[in-house]
Amino acid sequence: MEKLPTSPEALLKYCRDNKIDYVDVRFTDILGMMHHVTMHIDAMDVDAFTDGIGFDGSSIRGWKAINESDMLAKLDPTSAYVDPFFEHKTLAVIADIYEPARAKGEVPKTYSRDPRQILRRAVEHMKSTGLTDTCYMGPEAEFFVFSDVRYDQEMNQGFYFIDAVDAQWRMGAEESPNLGFKMRKKEGYFPLPPNDQFQDLRAEMTEMLNKMGIPPERHHHEVSAAGQAEINFKLDESLKQADKVQLFKYVVKNVARKNGYSATFMPKPLFGDNGSGMHTHISLWKDGRNLFAGDWYAGLSEMAKYFIGGILHHGPALLAFTNPTTNSFKRLVPGYEAPVSLVYSARNRSASIRIPVAVHGEKARRIEFRTPDPAANPYMAFAAMILAGLDGIQNKIDPGAPADFNLYEATEEQKKKIRSVPANLTKVLDALEQDNAWLKVGGVFDDDFIENYISYKRAEVENIVNMRPHPYEFVLYYDC
User: Fold this and answer.
1) Catalytic, out of 230, 236, 243, 373
2) Of these residues, 114, 140, 243, 373, which one is catalytic?
3) Is 142 one of the catalytic residues?
C-alpha cells in the first residue's frame, strides 16, 4: 500500500496532485454500521480536519433526537486510504464525531456515543494506569459467501431464502450440469478444490486487503458447508485494528459483490451448521515487552491470569458488546464448536478463553477470547474487553482452575462448577444493567450511553422475539 501523508495540508495536496476528485468521510454508528458522505475536492480544506463537517445526527440509529441533531465529523488524516471500489477516484477518511459548540468561544466536545471515541478513551485510560502502553488485538472475523439471498417481513408473511454453490442441499439440484463436489454439513474445514469452490475469491479478497494496508496471514474455507470463510490478518494496536476490522468487512463484501456473490458477517444465518465467530487474540505490552509472557499456566504471566479473570468475571455483561444481537445466541449453543462456557484452557477450543500454545517465543504469548462474533462493533467490543481485563488486573480477579477437558462431555459434577454464557440477549442486557461500573472507569462509557444502548437493544428483542410470528411456529402450532 502506498504510504499517504498524515497531515491535512499534505493529504489535500496529495489528492490534487494525484487527480483524486472526491473525499469520502466515514464513521461508525453504535450498531457497527459504517456511514459516509462524499465531498468534492474543491469543497475541501483543512477546516474539515480541524473544525469538522456538519451532518444530521438524528438520522443515525441510536444517536440524536431531532431537536439536537447537528453534529460534527472531524477527519482523522492518519486514517486515509484510496477506495478501490468507486468509479471516480476517491480518498476515504475516517472521522471522529463531536458535539458542536453552543456558544462563541466554546470548544466542540467529543461525542460520548461515538464508538471510535469510546475506544480512544479506553486506550487513554489504559495508558493512564501505568500498567501498560499498548493493547494488541488480533480478531478473526469469519463470514459466509452466498450465491442467492432473499428475505422479507410483512404483516402477512415473513421468510428468508439462502443458497450457496457448495452447500450440501445442492447435491441434487439441477445445475445443467451439477458437477458434484458439494460440502457435507460440518465438513467445510480445509478441503482442497474442487470441494473448496472459493479459493480464488478469498485470494482476491486477500490481495485487495494487502493493497489497502491490512497485511494478511492466511485464508481458508471454514467448517460450515455453505461458503463459510476465514481470512486472518496480522495483529495491531487496538484502535488501528478496529479501523481495520471495518475496512476488512467493507473489502470482503464488495469483492464478493463484484464477483456475483453476497458476503455476510451475520453470526448464525443457517440452521444446523456452524456459525461465524470473531475469535480475538489479545496481549498487553509495555516499552516493547509482552506483559502476557511468564511462568504461570501455559507460559502466561500473572498479569495475563488476572486479565482472564476480569474477562470471565464480567463475561455476561461484556457479551452485550461482543455478541450484540439476538442472532448471536443462536451460535452460542453446544455442539457447533461455539465457546459456551466461561472458563479458560490451553488448546481447548470449547472454552471461552483459549491460550494458544503452538506459538514461537515470548512475543507470541497471548490469550484468545473465542466468544465474540463479527456482528460486534469492533470499537465498543475492544474497549469493553480492555476495561474488563484491566479491572481483573487491578482487583486481582482469580479465574480459578483451567478446564483442560472436553466441555461438551463434562460430567454432571463438572458442569455444576462451570458458568455458561447467558442463553439470550435479554439475559445479557440484564447483566449489563447490573454490572457496568467497570465500563465507566476513566469516563470511557457513561450512564447516557449504557442506558441508551440497553434501551435500543431491548427494543430489538421485543420486535424480534416477542412480537413477530416465527415461521417455525406455523410448523408447530398452526393445527392446534
Assistant:
1) 230
2) 140
3) yes
d(CA 13, CA 339): 49
Binding positions? 140, 142, 217, 222, 230, 274-275, 279, 281-283, 331, 337, 349, 363, 368, 370
The model carries a pTM of 0.95
**What is d(CA 71, CA 80) in angstroms, rounded to the nearest whole number?**
21
Burial of 174-188, coded b for 16+ CB within 10 Å and e otherwise, reads eeeeeeeebbebbbb
With cell 455478541, the residue in question is 323
- Residue-by-residue pLDDT tens, the chain, 480 positions: 678 989 999 999 999 999 999 999 999 999 999 999 999 999 999 998 998 998 888 888 888 776 677 889 999 999 999 999 999 999 999 999 998 877 666 777 899 999 999 999 999 999 999 999 999 999 999 999 999 999 999 999 999 999 999 998 998 899 899 888 888 888 778 889 998 999 999 999 999 999 999 999 999 999 888 899 999 999 999 999 999 999 999 999 999 999 999 999 999 999 989 999 999 999 999 999 999 999 999 999 999 999 999 999 999 999 999 999 999 999 998 776 778 889 999 867 678 999 988 777 889 899 999 999 999 999 999 999 999 999 999 999 999 989 877 666 777 777 777 888 999 999 999 999 999 999 999 999 999 999 999 999 999 999 998 889 998 999 999 899
Q: Going from the N-terminus, what domains does the chain have, and what CATH number goes with each?
A: 8-111 (3.10.20.70), 112-139+277-480 (3.30.590.10), 143-265 (3.30.590.10)
Phi, psi of 191 (to 5 degrees): -75, 150
How far, in Å, CA of 37 to CA of 110, rounded?
20
